[in-house]
């Protein structure tokens, strides 16, 4: 795969609201590549978003979550449910029963990608079966798998994708790691790009902590064909980022990010707030069970416009995010004004 776009920038898929068809087409119009985020959405909604972007005839991608293995031990999840009772009281919601399995409609979303011959399809949270990759590639899709270290890169390369996304611990949002217990979020993107390049012969897109043109240049110098950036686009005019997160990012009150499993059971980098301070040290692993467990609290906090119990996903370069058109942010990252 030779990078075929004017600018070496991927506007990251950002599930939970920020990624919209408008963000994806604005990225493409600016010479970058944008991804729709299939995560958490119904297959019907994904199909509609794909149809909308496809009608623009601009290049685009679709990102799909791999189903996570069910938790081996539900004891810590039950304990965490107990520990969250004060939050349920505070936000006047019921904590749901534990929901352990949820494949996020994986098969249906792959079928949509195949049916629409989505030009670029990326995966996170694991490695798809080789048969899935083959089917997508036969349909004409370029297939990418997100990895966080050399070992995951070797496993991913074995199923025959076109390229890998090397995601560092500095990245905003969930880590793609398949060894969440070992994830401390300390790796930097240039380092992960170099490790992955040394392990496999595939083109690598670097991700994590990109806020400036200098960050982009550094990743390209480390051997990346392009850079996938998310956080720096959260305040873009075309992004669907919730007002409560936009306001939090602009308030100057949230100055640090932390890696936490408190919201979803999978390590993710977020702005530090009351919820991360209270629960990061005790929250168990167990995605998506913890995601479902905390959902009513997060939704109620969002309704109250209270940023202290919301997953404010953001990477280490969050202070570089500025409001404005996507095209301007793409230009800023690529050093063209
Ligand atoms: C709000 C938010 C949501 C994200 N959602 C997804 C997602 O749905 N799928 C995915 O592969 N990566 C997701 N990511 C991670 C990005 O793909 C990418 O690795 C990350 O944004 C790069 O680091 P940066 O945010 O520091 O630029 C998300 C990141 C953020 C900030």
TrEMBL record:
InterPro entries: Aldolase_TIM (IPR013785), NMO (IPR004136)
Annotated signal peptide: none
Protein name: Propionate 3-nitronate monooxygenase
Cofactor: FMN
CDD domains per record: NPD_like (cd04730)
Biased composition (Polar residues): 175-188
GO biological process, one term: response to toxic substance
Organism: Micromonospora inyonensis
Keywords in alphabetical order: Detoxification, Flavoprotein, FMN, Monooxygenase, Oxidoreductase
Similarity-based family: Belongs to the nitronate monooxygenase family. NMO class I subfamily.
An annotated Gene Ontology molecular function: nitronate monooxygenase activity
